[in-house]
């Protein structure tokens, strides 16, 4: 058999594993953010200590991500009363449906009940107050702020 059709191992053909991408911009979080990030670091350290050398490699990469996030955290002060910002729970109407979301830091977001401050929906609402409207997805006055609670 020709050498061209032989592989020594599958490892030589795998894509290199790069670091986890850090979101662009500042690492702004709510007051709960540092504890959440610290918890991720501790959890990963425990899992790495219990893992085999081979299983620890992806965990170490994830740990580097979370340590970087912990080192760059910027806790944001609560916004002014009734103003939407990082640390707000906003009830709003979008396309006729009422919804409530918290606006948080990137690493605190879950996509269901909390969105990161850099998400298009959050950016459209930041700085508004109850009763105001915002343009969204090319529609004028698509979002109407119903209430704002800063926590």
Protein traits:
151 residues; alpha/beta; Chitinase A, domain 3; 2 domains; 3 helices
Describe the structure.
- The protein is of the alpha/beta class and 151 residues long.
- The protein has 2 domains: 24-75; 88-150, Chitinase A, domain 3, CATH 3.10.50.
- It has helices at 33-50, 53-71, 120-125; strands spanning 27-29, 73-75, 88-94, 97-104, 114-116, 133-136, 139-150.
- The chain has a 5-stranded mixed sheet with strand order 5-4-3-7-6. The chain has a two-stranded parallel sheet with strand order 1-2.
- The longest helix is centred in the middle third of the chain and has 19 residues, at 53-71.
- 21% of the residues are buried.
- Pfam families: GreA_GreB.
The radius of gyration is 21 Å
CATH fold description of the largest domain: Chitinase A, domain 3
> What is the averaged pLDDT score?
91
* Count of helical regions: 3
Order of helices and strands: EHHEEEEHEE
Largest sheet: 5 strands, mixed
Architecture of the largest domain, CATH level 2?
Roll
């Amino acid at each position: 058999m020709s050498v061209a059709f032989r592989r020594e191992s599958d490892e030589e053909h795998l894509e290199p594993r790069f670091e986890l991408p850090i979101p662009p911009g500042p690492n702004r979080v709510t007051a709960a953010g540092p504890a959440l990030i610290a918890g991720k670091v501790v959890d990963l350290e425990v899992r790495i200590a219990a893992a085999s050398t081979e299983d620890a490699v992806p965990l170490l990469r994830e740990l580097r991500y979370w340590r970087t996030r912990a080192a760059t955290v910027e806790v944001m002060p609560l916004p002014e009363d009734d103003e939407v910002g990082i640390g707000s729970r906003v009830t709003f109407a979008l396309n006729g449906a009422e919804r409530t979301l918290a606006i948080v830091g990137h690493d605190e977001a879950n996509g269901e009940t909390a969105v990161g401050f850099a998400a298009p929906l959050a950016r459209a609402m930041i700085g508004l107050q109850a009763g105001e409207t915002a343009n969204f997805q090319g529609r004028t006055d698509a979002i109407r702020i119903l209430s704002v609670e800063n926590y």
